[in-house]
Amino acid sequence: MYRSAFYGMIVFILYSCSFNKTFHKPTKTDPFEELTYFEKDGDTTFIEYIETNQEIILRDNNLKVINHDYFIQNHSFLTTGGNRLNGWLLIPKNISPKATILHFHGSAGNLITHYQSISRLTEHGFQVFMFDYSGYGSSEGESSHNTIIEDGYSAIEYLNTQDQFRDLKTIIYGQSYGGYLAAIVGSNRQESIDGIVIEGAFSSLKEEARHKASVFGNFVKSGKQADEEIKNNHKPVLIIHSIEDSMVPIKLGKKIYVNANYPKEFYEIDGEHNSGLLNYSKEIANKIHKMIMGD
Asked: Which backbone phi and psi does 75 adopt, to 5 degrees?
């Protein structure tokens, strides 16, 4: 009996360590050169990098230019830990940007797999700065929970030093794990931002683990809790969550909302996990506009 209990405890510990690692599923890419390719689900995207003006041009598998209503400008910056991270700035072609969206993507993929969703906001006059965490995409380093939080702080500090961002308001927009991150980073850097948007996020690593692994989730390290950190925030908050989200239950988004200070809004939508901007970009953009205008 005691031996069984001992072995059971070992299994629990090993499983919890493994589950902690599954929160980070980076997709690596080679550093951008003149022409780099990225393949996902059988589709190939070629990334042309023009070093003279830092422009990124995307091409399909026939090398035809993929046209967008925005320019893509490549950026890189150092974190406090010394990793060089890669980022893209999406700049609307025909509209002067009204604000900067600082995007924190989810725990899987990289900026190439996430840009099509967040780029919807460029249609509504926002410029978007997105970047890959340490160990993701072509960013240096190894991913870990604490490292990625520091990456978020470093991204804000980078925006503060660049003329392209200095005169515009900054809104953090985080999706899934990035939404959890946005609540933590934004609440601790309020002097540098003007609002936080959280889509499809969980309140803590442990709560998300409980959803995915039931009793095993109790052995996952809690780390910082978004629903606790958000109590310290006094900037406007918009929380978006789908009632149909099977990956992150809507109740976890509501836990963050309950603890947030006013002004705040909970926007309940339909659709799959993190599909808000694909289905409701106009409505979300209007809510962000009201957030920064104080209407």
From this structure: -135, 155
Q: What per-residue confidence (pLDDT) applies to 127?
A: 98
Burial class (CB in 10 A: 0-12, 13-18, 19+), 34: exposed
pLDDT at residue 269, as a whole number: 98
Tokens encoding 290: 């009201």
2-30+68-293: CATH architecture: 3-Layer(aba) Sandwich (3.40)
How far from chain centre, in Å, is Cα 106?
A: 5
Beta bridge partners of 37: 46
For the chain, which ranges sit under pLDDT 50? 2, 5-20, 211, 213, 215-219
Q: Considering only CA atoms, which of 145, 144, 118 is closest in space to residue 131?
A: 118
Alpha carbons 231 and 183: distance in angstroms, whole number: 9
**Distances from the Cα of 264 to the Cα of 111, 212, 230, 238, 240, angstroms:** 28, 28, 11, 6, 11
Domain positions in the chain are 2-30+68-293
Task: Tell me the whole-structure pTM to 2 decimals.
Answer: 0.88
pLDDT number for residue 38? 75
Alpha-carbon span 217 to 62, nearest angstrom: 46
Beta carbons of 52 and 63 less than 8 angstroms apart? no
* 3-class SS string, 31-67: CCCCEEEEEECCEEEEEEEECCCCEEEEECCCCCECC
Residue 225 pLDDT: 94
